[in-house]
Amino acid sequence: DPETNELLSEGVVASNTMTFLVAGHDSTSTAITMLMYHVASHPEVEQRVFNEVSRVVGDQPLTWDMLGKLVYCTQVVKENLRLFPPAPHFIKVSPPERETTLGKYRIPAGSALLISTFALHYNPSVYEDPHAFKPERWEGEEAAKRSPYAWLPFSYGKRACIGMQLSLIEQRVALVELVRTYYLRVDPSTNIRISNPLFMSAQGIQLRFIPRSTSAPPPALTAACLDVQLTGTDSAPLGNFEQLRGKTLVVLFGSNMTTCEGFATRLVARGSELGLTCSKAPLNALCSTPPVLPHRDEGLVLVVTSTYNGLPPENAKTFADWLSTDDAATALKDVAFSVFGAGNRQW
């Protein structure tokens, strides 16, 4: 614990190790199995994945920056998890100290609620043609207007799956590496059987992996490029940097794993190159020995922070409470600021 310096007990370490082994292996391996099956069953989807991978990654090793640009690949992964969530249900417990309501239903205090992910993901009032594999349902207005709670393969809230991001990364990496190396096809001997001992498991799937380097496309493969190529200039005009010289830039960060602190350091370095007077500090610093924040005519405050299932990181918790005080209203009056949030849309 960063505040008390208390160490984890052996029991906690053992329990978490078991959680990682059980929850992080079967669930993701099953998801990847069904991901490959769905891609192999839809050559037009495979072709579009290959087009995007070729454009973004090419023959280079896959990097973190590239992964974030694989928009269609992410849609394919999400659609697979909608159709086949490895955890078909999860349990939530209502507040133990009071009863609550859920729509027209009264829920007694401390009730265990079993939520069916399957029923939610196949609800025709939420997903048109719910049994069809349609990655495009995760793009544009259709995805934007849908509730974030309509897709819950990892549950949600404070008790959401701790391995969500790792699993999504693993699935996208597997998709990229397999599709750019092989054509995927379903073997006629496939006879799918679904079991559910703890996580859902698909048995009887037989796939053919045909090397792209030595084989012509299988007859069912659609050769036409399905992606819309972006055109236009590489970047927008960035304005006159001379007007920034002599201004003040204060970068405030919230970070548990140092990622956002790293962003803050890069912003300070870049700002200094452009002639600004720069400094950085954790968000909690505003509540104790605050840096001098520039008036909007004198400069800018940039906030770079992560969230963890909607909660602030350790070095921003005090700041989050402080924001609602009169001191905060005074300190932030006439301050121009911008916020870069590093997190997931489900958060």
From TrEMBL:
Q: Which residues of the sequence carry a binding annotation for heme? A: 161
Q: Which cofactor does it need?
A: heme
Recorded hits in InterPro entries, A to Z, give: Cyt_P450, Cyt_P450_CS, Cyt_P450_E_grp-I, Cyt_P450_sf, Cytochrome_P450_monoxygenase, Flavodoxin/NO_synth, Flavoprotein-like_sf
**A molecular function (GO) term:** heme binding
Entry's family note: Belongs to the cytochrome P450 family.
Q: Which segments cross the bilayer?
A: none
Q: What is this protein called?
A: Flavodoxin-like domain-containing protein
Q: Which SUPFAM superfamilies match?
A: Cytochrome P450, Flavoproteins
Keyword RNA-binding assigned to the entry: answer is no
Record keywords:
Heme, Iron, Metal-binding, Monooxygenase, Oxidoreductase
Name all Flavodoxin-like domain ranges. Answer: 249-347
Q: Does the keyword Iron apply?
A: yes
